[in-house]
């Protein structure tokens, strides 16, 4: 399907989708600019997109592939693609894999998760299949026992391993624990979540000749977002022009950010999807322009990923940065925020992954807690006032961190409070 003009896409969505017709009811009949449209309210969008009595789709659900999204937290959400839309989606992303470093003849292991309507395994496999360069595809999956995965990687001398950072780190931890390395691996294609600097030593221990790179930026609900940009910062991506339009908007006003280096929320419009239109849809991430004119932007982390502990708000990216700065020897390979309730009060537990939990020094634990309290002094005052419990630390191996059972992604916030 060719790229639609913005005016045609708006007209089509208003005419065929009850949700968009209601959302745009106050607009004139001849809207031609995206900036004239409101940003999609996500809660209303997903309420309209129920499997039964759907008010978002533009046609009856007679031909489509269905995927579940938004499964890490909250209720499940479903995304729909016609076969043409899915083919075009994966072909465009497959072309972007060349920017990420895919070369002719590369042997690629797909370690993403499959099943339960989850998209990433099929998406990566289909993108490799439709990539413009020849490649050998090994559909291993993320739930295969690590010994079997390692054996396949060794037997085929796999050069590219694709998976979430959590999956890659878990495999690396197993390999390092068995004193094994996979020197044939050249690239670690990661996606689905951010890769942090504190994870690199673990990856280097198991894959000594591999360079971690983003395989690209996409989601099953928002669609194409950005292709990888070669360079030192894997968070930097280039918009998939002309297939999608990426905007970065101010949090307070929904106006476009002033220029490069200004943080805002990332909003996307897909110019080829028609069954489930995506018009000014919040992708769920914060970003900043690196080169606005060239469509190059840097992902800054999830927009909504945080937690409230009593009266104190904490954001996972902030806590992660503080822990990394306090961990001078680079011992921590994973961070998880756990919220528990005891004695009538909420409390934060930092679940930190290291190579050997039994050998962590008390000094490191004290340093980490002190750094978090220095960054968020309100937590200390709330503790002194008896509103929250003191920060605790739980040392674990990387494989013991809680992950999403379907996707294998690290769950950044684990809320263990009773909700009754």
UniProtKB/TrEMBL annotation:
SUPFAM superfamilies for this protein: Acetyl-CoA synthetase-like
Domain of life: Bacteria
InterPro entries registered for this protein in UniProt: ANL_N_sf
PANTHER family hit by this protein: BLR5969 PROTEIN
Name by which UniProt lists this protein: AMP-dependent synthetase
């Amino acid at each position: 399907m060719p790229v639609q003009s913005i005016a045609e896409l708006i007209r089509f969505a208003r005419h065929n989708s009850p949700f968009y017709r209601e959302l745009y009811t106050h607009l004139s009949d001849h809207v031609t600019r995206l900036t004239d449209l409101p940003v999609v309210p996500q809660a209303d969008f997903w309420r309209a997109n129920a499997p039964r009595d759907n008010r978002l789709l533009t046609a009856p659900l007679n031909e489509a592939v269905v995927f579940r999204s938004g499964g890490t937290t909250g209720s499940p959400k479903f995304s729909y693609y016609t076969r043409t839309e899915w083919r075009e989606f994966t072909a465009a992303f497959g072309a972007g894999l060349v920017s990420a470093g895919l070369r002719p003849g590369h042997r690629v292991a797909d370690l993403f998760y499959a099943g339960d309507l989850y998209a990433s395994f099929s998406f990566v496999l289909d993108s490799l299949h439709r990539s413009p360069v020849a490649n050998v595809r090994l559909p291993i999956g993320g739930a295969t026992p690590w010994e079997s995965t390692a054996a396949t990687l060794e037997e085929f001398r796999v050069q590219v391993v694709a998976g979430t950072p959590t999956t890659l780190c878990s495999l690396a931890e197993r390999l390092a624990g068995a004193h094994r390395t996979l020197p044939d691996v050249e690239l670690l294609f990661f996606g689905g979540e951010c890769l942090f600097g504190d994870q690199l030593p673990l990856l280097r221990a198991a894959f000594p000749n591999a360079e971690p790179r983003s395989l690209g930026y996409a989601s099953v609900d928002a669609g194409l977002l950005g292709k990888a940009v070669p360079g030192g910062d894997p968070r930097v991506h280039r918009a998939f022009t002309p297939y999608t339009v990426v905007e970065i908007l101010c949090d307070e006003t929904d106006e476009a950010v002033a220029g490069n280096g200004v943080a805002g929320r990332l909003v996307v419009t897909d110019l080829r999807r028609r069954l489930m239109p995506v018009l000014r849809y919040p992708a769920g991430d914060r970003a900043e322009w690196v080169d606005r004119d060239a469509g190059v932007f840097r992902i800054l982390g999830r927009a909504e990923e945080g937690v409230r502990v009593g009266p104190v708000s904490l954001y996972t990216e902030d806590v992660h940065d503080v822990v990394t700065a306090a961990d001078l020897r680079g011992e921590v390979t994973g961070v998880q925020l756990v919220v528990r309730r005891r004695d009538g009060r909420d409390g934060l537990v930092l679940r930190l992954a290291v190579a050997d939990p039994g050998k962590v020094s008390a000094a490191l634990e004290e340093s980490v807690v002190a750094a978090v309290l220095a960054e968020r002094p309100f937590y200390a005052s709330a503790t002194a006032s008896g509103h929250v419990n003191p920060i605790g630390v739980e040392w674990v191996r990387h494989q013991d961190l809680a992950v999403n059972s379907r996707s294998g992604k690290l769950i950044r916030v684990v809320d263990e409070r009773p909700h009754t």
